[in-house]
Structures are given as C-alpha cells and as structure tokens.
Amino acid sequence: MKITKIETLVCHARMRNWIFVKVLTDQPGLHGWGEATLEWHTRAVVGMIEDISQLLVGEDPTRIEHLWQMMYRQHFWHGNGIVRGTAISGIDLALWDIVGKLHNVPCHKLWGGPVRDFVRLYCHLGGGKMEDFYETRPADAKRFGELANKAVEEGFTAFKTMAVPETMPLEGLRPIRYAEACVKAMRDAVGDDIDIMVDCHARPSPRMGLRFATALEPYGLYFFEEPCWPETIDDIALIQRSVSTAIATGERLVGQHAFRELLEKRACSVLQPDITHCGGLSEARRIAAMAEAYRVALAPHNPQGPVSTAASLELGFATPSYIICESVHLDVPWRQDVVREGFTIEKKGRLVRPSSRPGLGIEIDEAEVKKHPFQQEVLQRSFYADGAVGDW
Predict the structure, then answer these.
(1) Cα–Cα separations (whole angstroms), residue 204 to 36, 261, 390
(2) Burial annotation 136-171 (CB, 10 A radius, 16+ → b, else e)
(3) Most exposed among 101, 161, 241, 270, judged by the fewest C-beta atoms under 10 Å?
C-alpha cells in the first residue's frame, strides 16, 4: 500500500480557517483525515504541506514513525517551527486515521485500549476586552457571571475564561481588582462544585502574571493558564512555586524537547500540547509519556476544528494523565454539518463516551466544506492605553 496524494481542504469558520488534511492511498476507499489549523497562517501551512508531501507520496502510510522522522529531520531545519510543526501534525493525524481504519479499530485501541470510561469536556466563555476593563468593570463582571450560569445550564461542569485583562509590563491595582471582580462573579454564580479555569493567554509580564495568580488563589481555580510570556519558562516555574493553584501551559510549544524543559524545571502542573501544532498524535504521545513520568496532568489545547477534537479525544481515552478536553461547540452554527463523528456526548456533565468507529472515528463532508471557502482572517491588533503594542 502506498500514499498517492496529500490534499488540503480549507474551510472558513469565522475567526479561523480550518485546514483539513486528506491523505489518499492506492487502496480503494482508504484515506485518512487530519487537521492543521493555524490562525492567520493558512496559506503558509497549506504551502508547507505541499512541500512536505514530496517526501511522502509513494511511501507506505502504515510506517507512521518512519514517516514522522522523515518529515521532521529530512531538511536542514528540524520541524520545530510552528508552521512546519503544524503541517507535520496534520499529516500525522491522517496517517493514524488510516492505520485505525486498516485494522478496523479506533485509534485508542492501537495504543493499548481505553484507560477510562469517559472524557469530560469544558467550554470557553471568552473574555473581557481592553475597553471593558477601562470603561465598564462592574457590567463586565456581571456578564461573566451570566455566561458562567449559561455554561452550567448547557451541562458543563467546567469552563474557562479570559478574565485577566491585557496589561502593560507593570501596572497598579486596577487590573488586579478587575480580574478579581470577574472571577468572584463567576464563583458566586456557580458555586464550588463547578471548575473554573482562567486563561491569561500569555499576555502578562512575569511580574504581573504572579500578581494575578496570587490575587485569584482564593477562588479555587482548577488551573491558571499561561500566566506570562511563553519565552520565560523560569518565570512560569516561579509562579508555579509561589501559589497552590495548578499552572497550565504549553499550547505554543512545538516538539517534545520544548516540553522536556517545562518538566525538568517543574514549571507547571498541567501540560497543554496542541495536537495540531506540537507534532501530531505521534509527538503528543511522547509528550504524554514524559508528563506521566513527572506526574503532570495533560489537558490539550483544542480550539480548532472537529478533526482536532476527535484526535484529542482518542488520545484522552488511551492516556492515563489526561484530565479534561477543551471543547468548542458554538463557533459556527454549521459545525456539525461538515463532520460525522463517532463519539457521543452526554449533555449532563458534557461527558464523551468513546467511539467504536475505526481510526479517528470521523468523516469530513467535502461538499459542505466547499460551502465555506477560504477567507482572510482579520489579524488581531492590541494596544495599551498609551498606544504601545500589546500582546494579543
């Protein structure tokens, strides 16, 4: 059996273009689906997949590790960059889908079988904008409480929010009090039985990140995500040692070597590799094995399309340290039209039961994808009150 072609299908889904990867074989009807979605870099990723495909056409798709090593190593620059890492990830997911289909089993059974009966989902409430912080703090805090209640009504027992505002490298109490007000409103709204996560989106400086983490500790967060710039791993480790709240990070890292440094420095309690960026399921499984050795939990970053979600869930069913899966369910109203999924979701608790379909358990409707062709994403811009460029 040989790979005959690697195709990309771009589907515009409001804030991002989903990039689906289809690996075709010379065995009739046998193909695999992957995803390589990278916001604001769609054309770069599609071009990188086209470049990498030259290494793979004519090769045996079942030699996944061999092909992964080819994609990673057979060029002067290893596959550590975000564009190349995302391209490798999309193809890798599709190869695992093929092997599961070939053996007629879900991917999690290829990796030793299920280690749990269900995976819990959490949703994202969004966050306040800079203008909310400077103009309408009380109203914004109330809105966070309302969104928290809505998530619980939809069956979620956990949700994440960006309640920490954008801040300059050093500020006074105002942004701290804003974050406290928003998180307090959510905790008051849903009580102690619901898990709340706060995502800083790596926007604060290390010092501001520590101040936010300390201020929010009384609210019992499930985890506090990306408290400062990802380039400052030593400072992330300092924040982790300074509070009892679990620190989560890793969504912007590519490759096991970057995650090794996080683990060696005891920088977090939760690793968040993005399966569509870090090197695919092959690399995510290596990262998960390292996390298990350090007794660190795994909660992959997953704000992309439906293939990313299916892959994250398959990993979750076969990975002991996996604790929860990020879920996007309201990004576009036609999300379920483009995919047929094998897993089932129980509304109460938003619990996912494993799929019995082979591979990743999904199939993409190419006709539906064509209804939503590529559109240029709106590049995000963020500025501080004094006009200086901020982190988005």
Answers:
(1) 28, 21, 9
(2) ebeebbebbbebbeebbeeebbbbbbbbbbbbeeeb
(3) 241
Distance CA 73, CA 37 (A): 22
CB atoms within 10 A of CB 100: 23
| Structural domains of the chain sorted by starting position, each given as residue range(s) with its CATH number in brackets | 3-105 (3.30.390.10), 110-360 (3.20.20.120)
Q: At 375, is the secondary structure helix, strand, or coil? A: coil
- Residue pair 294/102 in contact (Cβ under 8 Å)? The answer is no
Q: Hey, what are 176's tokens?
A: 């701290």
Mean pLDDT per 10-residue section of the chain, whose length is 392 residues? 98 94 97 96 97 97 98 86 95 98 98 97 76 53 93 96 93 94 96 97 96 98 96 96 98 95 97 97 98 97 96 98 93 93 91 96 97 91 89 80
* Residues catalogued as catalytic: 201, 301
Entry pTM? 0.95
